[in-house]
Design goal:
Blueprint (H helix, E strand, L loop, with lengths): L5 E5 L4 H12 L5 E4 L4 H11 L6 E4 L2 E4 L3 H8 L2
Parallel strand pairs: 1-2
Antiparallel strand pairs: 1-3, 3-4
């Protein structure tokens, strides 16, 4: 899957955010990291897309996945 089609909205202290990034990296999936603790624009974008302030939020080809849901990630990534 080309880079830029997957975004992970995260905060540095979130353990589930770390799990998603590790999962994607282990499966050789390119993704864009957006630190919503530091990036106000990314934070506002995440809230607009997900309707909430909690992380992680993963966007795959325009579809939003809230939280760490490995089964849904695998389904959307074809793994």
């Amino acid at each position: 899957m080309p880079a830029g089609e997957i975004k992970v909205y995260f905060t540095p202290t979130c353990p589930y955010c770390k799990m998603i990034k590790k999962f994607l990296t282990q499966n050789n999936i390119s993704f864009q990291e957006l630190d919503v603790a530091l990036d106000k624009t990314a934070r506002e974008e995440m809230i607009r897309k997900s309707g909430q302030m909690g992380v992680p939020v993963t966007e795959i080809n325009g579809e939003v996945i809230i939280g760490y849901n490995e089964a849904r990630l695998k389904e959307k990534l074809g793994l």
